[in-house]
Amino acid sequence: MPNDIRVKICGLRTAADVDAAASAGATYVGFVFFPKSPRNISIEDAAALAVDVPLGVAKVALVVNADDALLDAITSAVPLDMLQLHGSETPERVAEVKARYGLPVMKAVGIADASDLPAIDTYAVVADQLLIDAKPPKDAPLPGGNGLAFDWTLLADRKYWTVPWVLAGGLTPDNVAEAVRRTGATQVDVSSGVEGTVGVKDAGLIQAFVRAAKSPSVPKL
Ligand SMILES: O=C(O)c1ccccc1N[C@@H]1O[C@H](COP(=O)(O)O)[C@@H](O)[C@H]1O
């Protein structure tokens, strides 16, 4: 029997992407509202895709340091289940977004080394979920979605936060089972690792990723 790992497939742009993620068994699908990203989607296109997301699959809007005007526009047009804040939003801004939109908020926290770990506790107080990702290097083109992993052993003894968390950053069908074993993650998120070319999802890779993540042979270390 497959395990109960929850998978988020991020950066969907077409109906075929949604179909591939949902039929593979994803729990969450993510739409990226960030013009610099190759996965950016217009509000209009996301609204059209969202209506075809099957019940039981949560629709997540990913934004980067979005102001209220952008969030107003997204949330009034797209039926959503969660907001993912993937920029340098402060804990105060996370609380403000939660209160203003009444949606659960997932805050991304970037990890490069042990000095980044206290931020996880800081955001755990205000966010509904945490997304623990690789911290982008200064010259990275994007604040996320760069296909970079971090040292998973940093999480080895620190996996019991007070809110649910998602492991992200450089995950692929080939390494996700190992990542789950190393970290004890019960939720994983992927974007570039299920793309054939940058910004274009591959249904076969999505299926392989979900299958590998949910593989029954993933005992925790
Ligand atoms: O995917 C993007 O283009 C993106 C842009 C800006 C911020 C975050 C983005 N993606 C998120 O980053 C993580 C890690 O991505 P990857 O799997 O390493 O490519 C991903 O899970 C998205 O939630």
Automatic annotation (TrEMBL):
Species of the source: Octadecabacter ascidiaceicola
What Enzyme Commission number(s) apply to this enzyme? Answer: 5.3.1.24
What's the protein name? Answer: N-(5'-phosphoribosyl)anthranilate isomerase
Q: Which reaction does it catalyse?
A: N-(5-phospho-beta-D-ribosyl)anthranilate = 1-(2-carboxyphenylamino)-1-deoxy-D-ribulose 5-phosphate
> Cross-referenced Gene3D superfamilies, in alphabetical order?
Aldolase class I
Q: NCBIfam families, alphabetically? A: PRK01222.1-1
Q: Quick one: which pathway?
A: Amino-acid biosynthesis; L-tryptophan biosynthesis; L-tryptophan from chorismate: step 3/5
Pfam entry (one): PRAI
Q: Which UniProt keywords apply?
A: Amino-acid biosynthesis, Aromatic amino acid biosynthesis, Isomerase, Tryptophan biosynthesis
Q: Which residues cross the membrane?
A: none
For this chain, the family text in UniProt reads: Belongs to the TrpF family.
Return one GO MF term.
phosphoribosylanthranilate isomerase activity
Q: Which segments constitute the N-(5'phosphoribosyl) anthranilate isomerase (PRAI) domain? A: 7-211
- Biological process according to GO: L-tryptophan biosynthetic process
